[in-house]
Amino acid sequence: MNNYMGILSAGWLIIGGALVLIAGTFQKVRRRIPELSIAIGGGATLLNGLLAWFYPLPKSGFFGMVWGGGIYSFLAAGVMLAITVGLSFLWRSHREGGYRGWEAFPLTLFIGAALSTLPASNHLLLSVVALETVSLGAYVLTGLSWENRYAPEAAVKYFLLGAVGFAFLLLGISYLYGLTGTLYLHHLWPMRWTAWHGNSLFALAMVLIAIGILFKLSIFPFHWWAPDVYGGATPSSAGLVVALGKLNAAFLAGVFLHYIHIPSDWLMGLASIAAISSLYGNLGALGQTSIQRMLGYSSIAHGSYILLGLVSGPEGRLQAWGYTLVYALTSTLTFGLLSLRAEPMEYKSLRGLGYNQPGYALAVAICLASLSGMPPLIGFFAKYGIFTAAFRAGYWLPSIVALIGALIGYFYYWRPIAWMYQAGEEIPIRMPALALSTGVLVGLGLLPMALWGWLDYLYGLAGLFLPRP
Amino acid sequence: MLQAYVGPLILLSLGAGIGLLLVYAPTLLAPRRPLPQKMVPYESGMDPVGTTRQRFSVHYYKVAMLFTVFDVELALMYPWVIFFREDPSWALLLFISFTGVLAVGYVYLLRTGVFDWSRKEL
User: Fold this and answer.
1) Cβ contact (<8 Å) for B111 and A18?
2) Most B-contacting residue of A19, A21, A33 (CB-CB within 10 A), to test interface
3) Are residues B99 and B70 in the same domain?
4) Is B102 inside any structural domain?
5) A403: CB partners within 8 A, 6+ apart
6) Are residues A161 and A89 in the same domain?
7) Taking Cα atoms as reference points, which of A215, A221, A217 lies closest to residue A249?
């Protein structure tokens, strides 16, 4: 049992996805595909959660290629939760579209299998295969729509630029293999990296890998595809695409930065890039009039916070992973909620929504406020953790610049909320409703903090806080 | 340190040189007596009908995918034979799972009508 813990959830998802794929070719069963897929995704979430609960100490298995249990199952549970939420938003758009493109459901399950294996992988080949499976699926999900004429264009852009980034990454990994002669990550950990630090081959390998990861994370000099892709993607799956890209890059970068010792001036350089990227993404999002395009620009900023966390030592990597899980879930929810409306996603079309559909508007407002980092919500704690870790790691200037960017973020995230609660006629809000919504707000914010503590505990148990020998 | 790169460089220049030589040697050396029959593209002695730039059926990409899938399977089979001698039970499990995944793709293609060439729409 212990040996197969690492591939248990992936096996469940692949077998389930294959069954769904074959079942969907029968006209009569096709209408039940979304429910079946959501059940399989939810089952994987539960399975991973139980594994993390009952086996807090991770175990290596499958020829030492995959970790299972502990933090790895926890991360997989978070990933599968975001994917299940994304699937349930796809459900509605497919029911209205006559189940055209139902292959998105098994595809998303396969993506889940790959993405939940990525952080647990102990072998670079497995990591690369998982990374590319997720990316290929994300390209397809981007261009899923038949009605939206921007979606295919976005998909082709994403595919071409993603392939370029992946080529850089693969070339870097091949140089790394040439240097060290191993692809197992636990062999890279005790390696005497300081001996390599002046070497030009090491520099070349690290630059290539960094370019590949910055591409996937859409950080400033390699960001130009992000607004077009996320702004043009099919609305019902755009949140999932954003989440997949960020999770992919954050997991791979976290694993690399843990096992390979990077010189501190390089880390400072990466932190500076993150600071510039935060300013760029937030300033770019400021001028947008479409919510989807605004969220596309802001994904550059969120990528920069993740990068800032990743370079700030073991504590920062923990916070960055937590932040990515939170961002993935919130962005899936935000895009999904916005895609439920038929109208185009302009700020103006939201006018008065807070009075016509109070529940829906409150949900959108909570999601946007959480993305901006409003204190009682989980988004605030995630950002707080990242910036604390960055300050502790000594990146004063980059952190302050990135914080200024985050403050700009408040302005454009709160503008759609302001539009929603603008109305011609005055509608009095009753006291119980106000109290209830405040309670929901605080409850939704504080509940995940228990999960955060659990993540912290499992992270320490997995030895990811360990100082370098 | 640069000496380590001399070998690959020689190999690279030899490869490129032979390729270029084979392409350009005939234009320099071969006798040229152009006749109208010799200038048409090869069509087994027939006069070409229509233009060479045609649209392929959209089915074609699925056939190409199918070919790639089975090509990959062959690439796995050779190392698998060696591995079979070391650990037969693992090797069997590995092959069953691999062909199982392949079979799912095959059944999907079959059911969606890839092999039905007369169908117009997908």
Assistant:
1) no
2) A21
3) yes
4) yes
5) A387
6) no
7) A217
Contact yes or no for A25 and B107 at CB 8 A: yes
User: What 8-state DSSP symbol labels residue A430?
Assistant: P
Nearest CA in chain A to B113: A25
B5 touches chain A (CB under 8 A): no
Tell me whether residue A128 is in a domain: no
The answer to whether residues A62 and A105 belong to one domain is yes
CB–CB of A354/A108 below 8 Å? no
Let me know if residue B7 belongs to a domain: yes
Q: What is the pLDDT of residues A109-147, one digit of tens each?
A: 999 999 999 988 989 999 999 999 999 999 988 888 767
Annotate A121-147 with DSSP letters as a single string.
B-BHHHHHHHHHHHHHHHHHHHT--SS
Res. A94 pLDDT band, cuts 50 70 90: confident
Count of the separate structural domains present in chain A: 2
Same domain, B26 and B63: no
Q: Residues 7 to 26 of A: which have CB under 8 A from any B CB?
A: 14, 18, 21-22, 25-26
Choose the mutation target among A12, A25, A65 for the interface with B, i.e. most B CBs under 10 Å.
A25
Total domains in the fold of chain B: 2
Domain that holds residue B23: 2-39
ipTM reported for the complex, 2 dp: 0.73
As a whole number of angstroms, the distance between CA A366 and CA A380 comes to 12
Q: What is the residue range of A103's domain?
A: 1-122
Contact state of B107 with A22 under an 8 Å Cβ cutoff = yes
> Looking at residues A149-163, what average pLDDT do you find?
88
Note whether residue A136 is domain-resident: no
Mean pLDDT, range A307-323, rounded to an integer: 91
* Residue-wise pLDDT tens digits, A450-467: 788 888 888 888 778 777
